[in-house]
Design goal:
The chain is mostly beta strands. About 5% of the residues lie in helices and about 40% in strands. It has 4 helices and 26 strands. The strands form 8 sheets. The chain has a 5-stranded mixed sheet with strand order 1-21-20-19-18, with no helix packed on it. Strands 6-7-8-9 form a 4-stranded antiparallel sheet. A 4-stranded antiparallel sheet has the order 10-11-12-13. A hairpin with a 5-residue loop joins strand 18 and strand 19.
Length: about 375
Amino acid sequence: MYAPIFVRVLLASLPIFVAVGAVTQGCQTDEDCSLNGVCRRASGTCKCDLGWKSDDCGQLDLQPATRWTGYNYTNITLPDFYSTKGGNSSWGGNIIQDRDDENLFHLIIDQFSHGCGLSGWRPFSTVIRAESRTGPTGPYHYAQELLGTFRHNAKVVWSPADEKYLMYTIGIETETPDECKSYKWANNVSVSSAPDIRGPWSPSQRLLNGTNPTPWPLWTREDPTSDFSLGVEDNLIYVASDFNGPYDLIRSMPWNTSDYSNHWTEDPFLWRDKRGHWHILCHWMIDITERGQKYPRVGGHLFARELAGNWTFKLQPVYDTTVHFTDGGRTDYYRRERPRLFFSGDGNLTPLYLINGVQEFNSSASYTLIQPIGQGFKAYERGLGL
């Protein structure tokens, strides 16, 4: 079984996990600042990193979004659609800046074929690529299908050690029925690779049972390893000596992660920050647990100094279902899930944009929303000449 030295040391130390509420007194450690900033002990206050705010740096500093950016084609009906209720619906994605053209951005998206929408995600979900030449927020326009039915939960990362893109998904290759309906299948995580974001993509290779894959390469300039980390639903964390696996479970959270508990989450997004600390952004389902509703508290945040170390889950929302727009209006969404972040490429990993799948009240349609974070996105876009 693969176990890096840092993992063996941490496992031997029998770490204690913490689930806490918001900080009510002055900070004492950087953990009191959610590892999204540093604690100024003399004053007991947190100095938050760019993109984060609040007394404990526990909230994303979201800025007004621009309407009709992201990827929204819910008003489109095509000849092969079985239903016209959801239009050409999608459910979140991740932004990839082109490696050869800095002004070209790709959005890798879960899109539902035949107009079947979010309720028919299994088996109608496909993975597509859309393009934008107007910046990371888009609007994005359809470019190509990367993987057909049934593929879902797509997450793409660049592997410096392998010099190729890796796409983690759940699903199987299958034909779809001739009407919109949903199936129940056991989920499994697979990986596919390609030298270019456009492909060709290798056949998906099954890795483990689970859903909501969130990979992060352990490669650094100081340690150019091929090791990979992989998070899945319930914030389970695996590692492998290369992306093909096998993947070994190194951490599971000790609190109750079952449905309808206070710690019930899905859709994790795992990353390592500029200090080497680890974070997970996730869909927190606290309002389903407490009120039977999918809103407004939806964004959860977990953090740890080490991948296999002492994880903390602050039971407070890092964002909610309300989005303000540059035209002065706002939308209170019925659902806002599948969080992804796009970071600055300067080594600081400043979060610049939040990507979500969203659904409005009284609508079967869903689409992919992109919202700027903090003030760093403005400098980033100026650097692109936008």
